[in-house]
Amino acid sequence: MWSKFLLKRMVDKSFVRLSESRCLRNRNKHSQCSLCEEVCPQPAINITDGKLTLDSSKCSNCRLCIHVCPTEAFNYEFEQLHKYEQKIQSCESVCFSCEEQGDPSTDVILPCVSSLRPEMLMIGTLYEKEIQILWNEKRCLSCKSNWTHKRDLIWINEWNGSNISECNVEIIDNKDARIASKRKVSRRELFSLSKNKTKDQVAHLVFDSFDQSSNLRDKLSLTDRRKYLLSCLKGKNSIGNIPDKIAKKLGIVKLEVTNNCQLCRKCSATCPTGALKLEETEEKTSLIFQAHYCIDCDICENVCLEIRKSSINFEEIRKSTLLHETKLNECPGCGDKKIETKTYCEECNVKQVRKSILYQNGEFD
């Protein structure tokens, strides 16, 4: 029995898996997200009638989809961020590279250099590592992952020009310029590392981090990437605006609403993460934006014309922002609460509209 169980675990963890309940396309009809389909070099990911599916038989296990999905709906055991943290921590200095160009014995290997994320650089910065990226674009043109110029590292220039880190990230195209090396460890550390590695391998076989239990009615929990981002920002205490390309990579944005906002609940109801929420008291109704939950999914913009996006700074990520607020008073029709500037509450307003239509049709004397 155990042998069958472990064999199934090994097979499951050897392939990319999709949690349909975390996929924006499958959760909400207003989502236009297609990042995974665009980056997939095989016809393995398809969007049909608004629903996303993964055909495992056509998947080449390139794992590019994992690093572009804003909700981490795709899972592959060895592509989790804490695994990258372990690799970064074990290096004296860090060199990120891809499977085609890097050296697994010294480099932190990614499925593709375009899979490099700001959170990974933040982890390296927290551990005070020198960081390089080994990237020869000419070799990328013949890559099996169908390299395109859309997948580039232009955002690294913004990283180097920002105050996120005191150290610049160097892009090199020659292995000889690499400074990456493994951190030297004592015998005691080596024994401890071996012991922990054995425990991890056993836990890896027995326990499965892949979770499909999310209810479509529930808001999505924070992704691991977002948890790392918040921890890194807390550790560095960064201030100032986040450069646009980095904010795009992080999937974080500032939301605002126009003065025409009616607090209709559409945006808060469709928001998959709870970044937009409506707070109601006896005296007022408020629309609150929590930036650290936002994944820049565009759903709120697709359901409401009053939503606006703008650049965000580091301080705004860590706090809640009041977007719109209106006072409440008693509805003369039913005695329930209504917006102060309106004559009736929503329910009574519908009744009044229906009644006026009936009067016009002569159905009421």
UniProtKB/TrEMBL annotation:
Q: Which Pfam family is an annotated match for this chain, by its short name?
A: Fer4_7
Which keywords has UniProt assigned to this entry? 4Fe-4S, Iron, Iron-sulfur, Metal-binding
Tell me which stretches of the chain form a coiled coil. Answer: none
Question: Which residue ranges does the record assign to the 4Fe-4S ferredoxin-type domain?
Answer: 50-79, 251-281
Q: Which Gene3D superfamilies match?
A: 3.30.70.20
Q: List the SUPFAM superfamilies.
A: 4Fe-4S ferredoxins
Give this protein's Gene Ontology molecular function annotations. 4 iron, 4 sulfur cluster binding; metal ion binding
Q: Endoplasmic reticulum as a keyword?
A: no
Q: List the protein's name.
A: 4Fe-4S ferredoxin-type domain-containing protein
